[in-house]
Each structure stands twice: as structure tokens, then as C-alpha cells.
Write a structure and sequence with these properties.
By secondary structure, this protein is of the alpha+beta class. It folds into 2 domains: 38 residues, no CATH class; 127 residues, GTP Cyclohydrolase I, domain 2, CATH 3.30.1130. The chain has 8 helices and 8 strands; from the N terminus they run H-E-H-H-E-E-E-E-H-E-H-E-H-E-H-H. It has a 5-stranded mixed beta sheet, with helices on both faces. A 3-stranded antiparallel beta sheet has the order 1-2-5. A hairpin with a 5-residue loop joins strand 3 and strand 4. The protein is elongated, with a radius of gyration of 21 Å. The N and C termini lie far apart (52 Å). The protein binds zinc ion. The site of zinc ion has 6 residues, from loops.
């Protein structure tokens, strides 16, 4: 047995680091350029005109970036203070691509959890949102993927995720609902089941209802 008096408090030694990589489809930039060129032609534009000659490669690179998740190191620490209230990161900006129109949707995410045994660096909540935002998405799935991921990797007492986004496919075309936002939420554990926590969560996100 270790003598507790001889233990030195060292948060680093208690840190657990995990490399997070989300697999995505391989982007063939050259093939994407050809396809964008064909799309321009099909839309009645001349891809060889002076103004459009660089467009296929720019578009291909832009889509590649929006579709490729960035890997990161997830570091968790023991919850030595036994903090058991909500931890909330509010107004995390994100952008994603709507899988129905290949147009962006963008807005802010509010991500909260109630720690159990481990806590995580606050900036990592934003990285988790980005991890799932980079790809072809629908807002509902993005919301539940962020919540499910935190539940799985942190095993907290509860998770709450709210996304507010403007979809360009809605605001630029069709019904032209400019300025309208779509709100989705995913609640797990105590945030879902305990009415007081749930009310507190929506109050803190500014989505009280
Ligand atoms: Zn859409």
C-alpha cells in the first residue's frame, strides 16, 4: 500500500490522453475538379473563361476541407473536486454541409455535461462539435452524435447539446426564410431525466422553455 501522506499531487500524471480520429471518405481532388468543371458546363457557364479557370480547383479544395474531420488529442482528468454541476460551453461557432443540398448550415452549439469520474478541457467540447460538423450532415444527427460521443468517452452523469443553425438551403432558395434558425437538442442522463437540471440547462443556453 502506498502511504497517502507521501503522494504528490500531480494532475499531469492522472491525465488520460486519447488520440481522436474520425474516419471519413477519401477525397479525390483531381476527380472533384473535373466534376466541378462539368457542373459549371451543365449550368451554362464556360469553365475556361478567365474568371472561372481557377474555380474548379478552389471548389474542390473548399469541399475537401469541409468534409475532412481534424483529429485531436482528448485529454481527460480525474474529477478531484467532485464537481457535480453542469459544465457548459456556450455559443461555440460551427459550420457543416447539408447532405441534401451540399450547401452550408452554420450557427452555434451549446454543449454541457455533468461530470462523474472525469472532466475534460473546455476547448475540447468545441473540437468534438467540429469533429462531427465536418462531413455531410443533417442537424438532428450532428446534435445526437455530439451527445452520444460525450456520453461514450466521458461517461458523465448527464449531457445536453443544443444547436442553433441557419441553413443556406432554406434561406437562399425555396421558402427563402432568411434569418430563421433551426434549433435541435439532445439530452442524456440527468439533463434529460431530472427536471431541475433540464430547466437549468435550457436557462443557461438561453433556450428556456
Ligand atoms: Zn439542405
Amino acid at each position: 500500500m502506498t502511504d497517502p501522506a507521501s503522494e504528490v499531487y500531480s494532475p499531469e500524471s492522472q491525465a488520460r490522453r486519447l488520440r481522436i480520429v474520425r474516419p471519413s471518405g477519401t477525397v479525390d481532388l483531381a476527380a472533384a475538379e473535373v466534376a466541378v468543371r462539368d457542373l459549371l458546363l451543365a449550368l451554362g457557364h464556360d469553365p475556361d473563361s478567365e474568371h472561372l479557370s481557377e474555380t474548379p480547383s478552389r471548389v474542390a479544395r473548399a469541399y475537401a476541407e469541409l468534409l475532412t474531420p481534424r483529429s485531436f488529442d482528448l485529454t481527460t482528468f480525474p474529477n478531484d473536486e467532485e464537481y457535480d454541476e453542469l459544465v457548459l460551453a456556450r455559443d461555440i461557432p460551427f459550420q457543416s454541409l447539408c447532405q441534401h443540398h451540399l450547401l452550408p448550415f452554420h450557427g452555434v452549439a451549446h454543449v454541457a455535461y455533468i461530470p462523474d469520474g472525469r472532466i475534460l478541457g473546455l476547448s475540447k467540447l468545441a473540437r468534438v462539435v467540429e469533429l462531427f460538423a465536418r462531413g455531410l450532415q443533417v442537424q438532428e444527427r450532428l446534435t445526437s452524435q455530439v451527445a452520444g460521443w460525450l456520453e461514450e468517452h466521458l461517461q458523465p452523469k448527464g449531457v445536453g447539446v443544443v444547436l442553433e443553425a441557419e441553413h443556406l438551403c432554406m434561406s437562399l432558395r425555396g421558402v427563402k426564410a432568411a434569418g430563421s434558425t433551426t434549433v435541435t437538442s439532445a439530452l442524456r442522463g440527468l439533463v434529460r431525466d431530472d427536471p431541475r437540471t433540464r430547466t437549468e440547462f435550457f436557462g443557461l443556453t438561453g433556450r428556456a422553455r
